[in-house]
């Protein structure tokens, strides 16, 4: 495993970070989820990312149980706040002071820890003044409940506003968690340049495009049984964007490139996002422990310019790049 600094801070995290978004507490049984976390630890992963909304708080509980007994100082535990949780009442969502202060206590209890290393705004809240949100985050940091603050799917302009306020309030906003993969490159034109300027790193989710970049989905063929595309608990909805024959055909063109590099297509996809020097970590999940061992082999892989060019040529016009799509990932009003 290799480690990278997160933003303009002294915090180092594993460049392969374990995330339990679509698995823990929903798609796999708790004992298998625990086995996946143990496999991640065995492979040298020290950084774990979750959110209170995942499986309506159950994912945090599963992760807390799985990490129980580990030396806390050797781990970096991240979680997030914004989406509706609990009974989904009027204040069980968003980035109001009330919701943030209550949500952090709930997350810490479920994770069985006194603090998280990174507490992230899971989206931008159009209905709460940014000053209120950032003051609440400042207080969470001063209370020792979070060491650093991050965000997810914020635009370049939103990042600039957030970083400016964080400096005024005396804490560090050091990370952005966007979707990023060979197929989804919307952060490259605006978010990444702004982040470099601001001292913010990316922790990217879906580097394998919900599994499409593994090559297991073939054009014109039914999805493999038990795959994410057949999951009715949310997985099939997330992958639907990529389940088009032109995309799947282009992805098949990556197979010889991966073979020439001596790695799998999944490892190629993860290694690709890690070539971006503004990316601190690639988030990977797993429904089986052996998937963790496979994904970790992407750590430290260097892709030369010729390989990067061949990837661009193989994918061609199916790549999505429009920077305006970052803003579209955030609801215009709170979701209840």
From TrEMBL:
Question: Which InterPro entries has this protein been placed in?
Answer: K_chnl_volt-dep_bsu_KCNAB-rel, NAD(P)_OxRdtase_dom_sf, NADP_OxRdtase_dom
Q: Where is the NADP-dependent oxidoreductase domain?
A: 15-314
Which Pfam families does the UniProt record give?
A: Aldo_ket_red
CDD domains xref list: Aldo_ket_red_shaker-like (cd19074)
Annotated signal peptide:
none
UniProt keyword list: NADP, Oxidoreductase
| Family classification | Belongs to the shaker potassium channel beta subunit family.
Extract the PANTHER family matched here: HYPERKINETIC, ISOFORM M
What protein does this entry describe? Answer: Aldo/keto reductase family protein
């Amino acid at each position: 495993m290799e480690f990278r600094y997160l933003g303009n801070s002294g915090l180092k995290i594993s460049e392969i970070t374990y995330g339990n978004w679509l698995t823990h507490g929903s798609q796999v049984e708790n004992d298998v989820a625990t086995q996946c976390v143990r496999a991640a630890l065995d492979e040298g992963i020290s950084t774990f990312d979750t959110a209170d909304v995942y499986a309506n708080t159950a994912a945090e509980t599963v992760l807390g149980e799985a990490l129980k007994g580990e030396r806390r100082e050797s781990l970096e535990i991240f979680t997030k706040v914004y989406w509706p949780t609990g009974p989904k009442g009027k204040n069980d969502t968003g980035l109001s002071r009330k919701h943030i202060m209550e949500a952090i206590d709930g997350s810490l209890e479920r994770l069985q820890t006194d603090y998280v290393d990174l507490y992230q705004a899971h989206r931008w809240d159009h209905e709460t003044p940014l000053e209120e949100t950032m003051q609440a985050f400042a207080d969470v940091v001063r209370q020792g409940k979070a060491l650093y603050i991050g965000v997810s799917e914020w635009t370049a302009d939103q990042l600039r506003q957030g970083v400016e306020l964080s400096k005024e309030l005396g804490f560090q906003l050091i990370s952005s968690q966007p979707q990023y993969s060979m197929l989804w490159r919307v952060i490259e034109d605006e978010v990444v340049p702004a982040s470099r300027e601001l001292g913010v790193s990316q922790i990217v989710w879906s580097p394998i495009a919900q599994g499409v970049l593994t090559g297991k989905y073939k054009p014109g063929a039914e999805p493999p049984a038990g795959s994410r595309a057949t999951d009715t608990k949310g997985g099939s909805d997330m992958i639907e964007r990529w389940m088009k024959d032109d995309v799947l055909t282009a992805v098949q063109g990556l197979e010889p490139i991966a073979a020439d590099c001596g790695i799998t297509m999944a490892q190629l996809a993860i290694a690709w996002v890690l070539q971006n020097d503004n990316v601190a970590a690639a988030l990977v999940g797993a429904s089986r422990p052996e998937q963790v061992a496979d994904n970790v082999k992407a750590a430290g892989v260097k892709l030369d310019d010729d390989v990067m060019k061949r990837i661009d040529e193989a994918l061609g016009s199916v790549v999505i790049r429009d920077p305006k799509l970052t803003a579209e990932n955030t609801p215009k009003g709170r979701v209840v």
